[in-house]
Write a structure and sequence with these properties.
Layout lengths: L15 E3 H8 L14 E3 L12
Length: 55
């Protein structure tokens, strides 16, 4: 993300996690909520595994 603290030339990255994955996991672990996995951005309706990794 342009201007984000993680956007510099270093090892930091922005993590994405689908709400669908969080909802699936929370069926067995109801305490899990968005943010429980330390993701920066929670998405909905995106095929995250199909997105290319960008350096």
């Amino acid at each position: 993300m342009a201007g984000d603290a993680h956007a510099r030339n270093w090892h930091r990255q922005i993590s994405l996690l689908a709400i669908e994955s969080i909802n699936k996991m929370s069926k067995d672990n109801p305490e899990l909520k968005p943010g429980s996995f330390a993701e920066k951005i929670t998405t909905q309706g995106l095929d995250l595994p199909a997105l290319p990794a960008v350096k």
